[in-house]
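Morning!

As promised:
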Amino acid sequence: GQQLNQSPQSMFIQEGEDVSMNCTSSSIFNTWLWYKQEPGEGPVLLIALYKAGELTSNGRLTAQFGITRKDSFLNISASIPSDVGIYFCAGQITSYGKLTFGQGTILTVHP
Amino acid sequence: ETGVTQTPRHLVMGMTNKKSLKCEQHLGHNAMYWYKQSAKKPLELMFVYNFKEQTENNSVPSRFSPECPNSSHLFLHLHTLQPEDSALYLCASSQAGANTEAFFGQGTRLTVV
């Protein structure tokens, strides 16, 4: 089956720093999604990407759909303590909305 | 509030018990999913329902039995589970088709003792 390699697995940063994480795959995806999950909660959708090369922002978050359609990155600028959580990428190839998830990036922000 | 509600939020059950997890979505979606999230593992897709029909079973053991009576409700019936089945069980919904976004419930934290 399809696999997504997400990196880094974890990040420990100071408040105010920028963050970058990415996902790569051996398969081509038609959609890339980025989710954030906080403790005890389900994943919440942050950004959705539908076209190769697309660059989309949501506040301090920016994500891009790679030109090859096999990768995506997420940047967080000027991190704040509430950015703490697990960030997941997810890709979709076919119909029926089935998503393949990356392993997640655990983000810790020190005040 | 994502429009997808799961109950209960927490469940502790013995290996001989029978219990059910419930999911309800108020988004008008026609596809619903069960995912399992274990520590240090990616989310694992368990079941997919499109227009109330099961379209995918990802080699899930028969002690997990899904039910989708209508497009808004999804159940996961549990019986004779094992301790390694302890995990966060997440329900999600979306519109069926490509380029769709899945919305998740808050999950049910299941502990099998």
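Chain B has a mean pLDDT of 93.

Hope this helps with the figure draft.
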